[in-house]
Amino acid sequence: MLKNIYLIKKELLIEYRNNVSLFIITPTVAVLILVFPILSENRFVVDDNFFTINKLLFLIFFTTLFSIRSPLNQKQLTRELNFGNITRKNFFLFKTISEFIIFMPQSIILLVSFSIFTNTGLQNHILYFGISIIFFSLNSIMINLILQMFTSFNNRFVQFILMVPVLMSLSFFIAPIWLGINPNLTNIYLMMYLGITLLVFSYTSWFLERE
Amino acid sequence: MDKNYFSSKNLTLGYGNSIVINNLPLSLDFDKNYEIIGRNGAGKSTLLDFISNNFQGNKFDSAVNLKDLRILQLSSEFTLISNLTLRENCLYFTKNKISLNDINKVLTDYDIYHFESDVIQKFSSGMIKRSELAVAELISPDVLCIDEPLNYLDGLGVELLKKLIIKRNENKQSTILCSQEPLNLFTETWETIDLNA
């Protein structure tokens, strides 16, 4: 595991020098968050649930932007992996980890900023909230990588069209948790989410082993 | 010991339904050097891509026997990662297995040591090609495939390429060059694969 840390280091270095994700996406979403409460001022009463659902929509929007920020080119990827004698399995695993390291803090900043600017509180325990974001991030990153690594969709528009429904279906599981259903149901939803995460990961592992 | 690492009696390659190489009998040994020559569109790069596992097309019903060797390709499109520095590229592609001293020594030999902290996207094409040759020397693969080896290289670059080929010959490693005309870069015996025929 540790001997492959160079794969994570490379992804983080590229991200650090890449001016798309941190310097364009984050400010864009931050501006949207700033504009949103101003727009909502025109309403008489804004329900907390309404803000919570919008928070989820912003997360989907942000995740989609994050996913399409640097499409993987199949030909280039194959050549790079062969050049470095890196297996697709290792690449997938460490790319997922590095994407998670990059994405997670940004999504937390986004959600915290949203809560601050719209004055919305948490409707469930912070632990459930945190776990649901971790599962959402992991699943969206893995599904995005699967779509990019094993299909020839390197067009950002096609990626966008494919990613939005996937992210929407992933968000169906966290919406009830964020809206504050009772702890027993929350546990069931989180278990379902864990199952999906394991399913996606095991399917990819099987697919890669088969290759 | 069997020296053969690639053999096919009827190698047919193409993209979609169009065939680029048709029924080519091919056998490659790792103690020999090869030069693939052919006019534009003859399938030189396609063949090189296929040998080095970078081919993304249709191989139809070709029966191919390819051994698991470290085959490295320097194609006409650069492989080094443009957002990383030269040193980071060296460390990445050698999987951190080669010491910095050895990397520095090779970079000095290739006269690119003073650019080691610069990102690749600032390099000229000739510099990238020279850097790729340096990385190839560091990796020291069993088989090195170079597409259009003289492209972008200046006089010193060509000399460095010749030295690399000689060094690989001494280490009993195979090199495959691919160009439109014979280049006469090999000093030892080599075999020509003529795709014009």
Walk me through this protein's architecture:
The complex is a heterodimer of chains A (211) and B (197). Chain A has 211 residues and is mostly helical. Chain A has helices spanning 5-17, 21-40, 48-67, 74-83, 88-118, 126-149, 156-178, 183-210. Chain A has one domain (2-210). With 197 residues, chain B is of the alpha/beta class. Helix content of chain B is 29%, strand content 26%. Chain B has helices at 44-51, 86-93, 100-109, 125-139, 155-170; strands at residues 4-15, 18-29, 33-37, 64-66, 71-74, 143-147, 174-179, 190-194. In chain B, the strands form 2 sheets. In chain B, strands 5-6-7-3-8 form a 5-stranded parallel beta sheet, with helices on both faces. In chain B, strand 1 and strand 2 form a beta hairpin. In chain B, helix 3 (100-109) crosses helix 4 (125-139) and helix 4 (125-139) packs parallel to helix 5. The longest helix of chain B is centred in the C-terminal third of the chain and has 16 residues, at 155-170. Classes of the chains: A mainly alpha (211), B alpha/beta (197).
